[in-house]
C-alpha cells in the first residue's frame, strides 16, 4: 500500500472517531485488544437487575436464588473489558472494546427474580433451575439459543434471528411472534391459552389447554398438543399440525 493511500485511509477513519492499535508488523486493528492472561474465576459486583441482554459469544448460565451473584470464568484481559452497567434493571452483557482471541468464557448468574431475556449475540443462555416469576419477556435477534424452565403468568416471545428457544414449565398465557428462522420448542410448557404469529421460516411447538390463536403468513409450521379451541388464519405456506 502506498504511503499516500495509507495516509488517506487513516485520515478518513480518524475522522469517524476510531481508535487504532498498531502492531509490530504494521497491521492495525480498530479499537480491539488481544485477550491474554491466565484463565481465572472472578466475582463481579453489579447493581440489582432482573433482566439480561446478551450481546456476545459468551455462554451465560442463570439460576434463581435468594441473593444476586455474578461469577465469570475466562481470560483476565477479557473479563476486565466486561461492561458492568445496569440500565432500567437490565444488565447488558457486552465488552467495552472489541476483544480478539476471547477463548472460552462463561458467566454464571444467580438472580432473585427474572423478568426479561434479550439475546442478540451468538452465545447461549441456559437456565440451571426452575424460575418462578410473574411476566417474562424473551426477545431473540441473534444466533444464540435460550433454554429455560419457568413457572409464570404471561410469556411474551419474539424471535427475529436464527436462535432457538427451548422452554418448559407452566404459563397462563403465551404469545409467540416469529419473523426469523429460529424455532420455539415448547411442548414441555403447559399453557392455558396461546397466540402464535409466524411471518418467517421458524416453527413453533406448543402445548395448549383452552384456546389457541394461529396466524401464519410465512413458511413456518405450528405444531400443537392438547385440545384447545382453535382460531386459525393461514395466508403463507406454513401449516397447523395436530400432534396429539
Automatic annotation (TrEMBL):
Keyword vocabulary terms for this entry: Signal
Alphabetical list of Gene3D superfamilies matching this protein: 2.160.20.120
Domain called Putative auto-transporter adhesin head GIN: residue spans: 48-228
Signal sequence coordinates: 1-21
PANTHER family (alphabetical): AUTO-TRANSPORTER ADHESIN HEAD GIN DOMAIN-CONTAINING PROTEIN-RELATED, HYPOTHETICAL EXPORTED PROTEIN
Protein name per UniProt: DUF2807 domain-containing protein
Amino acid at each position: 500500500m502506498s504511503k499516500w493511500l495509507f495516509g488517506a485511509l487513516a485520515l478518513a477513519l480518524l475522522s469517524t472517531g476510531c481508535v487504532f492499535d498498531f502492531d509490530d508488523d504494521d497491521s492495525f486493528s480498530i479499537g480491539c485488544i488481544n485477550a491474554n492472561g491466565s484463565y481465572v474465576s472472578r466475582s463481579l459486583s453489579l447493581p440489582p437487575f432482573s433482566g439480561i441482554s446478551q450481546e456476545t459469544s459468551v455462554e451465560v448460565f442463570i439460576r434463581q436464588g435468594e441473593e444476586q451473584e455474578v461469577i465469570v470464568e475466562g481470560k483476565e484481559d477479557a473479563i476486565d473489558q466486561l461492561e458492568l452497567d445496569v440500565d432500567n434493571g437490565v444488565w447488558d452483557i457486552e465488552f467495552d472494546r472489541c476483544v480478539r482471541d476471547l477463548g472460552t468464557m462463561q458467566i454464571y448468574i444467580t438472580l432473585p427474580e427474572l423478568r426479561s431475556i434479550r439475546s442478540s449475540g451468538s452465545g447461549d443462555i441456559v437456565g440451571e433451575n426452575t424460575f418462578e416469576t410473574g411476566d417474562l419477556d424473551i426477545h431473540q435477534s441473534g444466533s444464540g439459543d435460550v433454554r429455560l424452565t419457568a413457572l409464570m403468568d404471561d410469556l411474551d416471545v419474539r424471535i427475529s434471528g436464527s436462535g432457538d428457544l427451548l422452554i418448559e414449565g407452566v404459563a397462563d398465557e403465551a404469545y409467540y411472534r416469529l419473523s426469523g428462522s429460529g424455532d420455539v420448542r415448547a411442548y414441555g410448557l403447559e399453557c392455558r391459552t396461546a397466540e402464535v404469529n409466524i411471518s418467517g421460516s421458524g416453527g413453533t411447538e406448543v402445548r395448549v389447554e383452552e384456546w389457541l390463536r394461529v396466524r401464519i403468513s410465512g413458511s413456518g409450521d405450528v405444531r400443537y398438543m392438547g385440545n384447545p379451541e382453535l382460531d386459525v388464519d393461514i395466508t403463507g405456506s406454513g401449516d397447523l399440525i395436530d400432534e396429539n
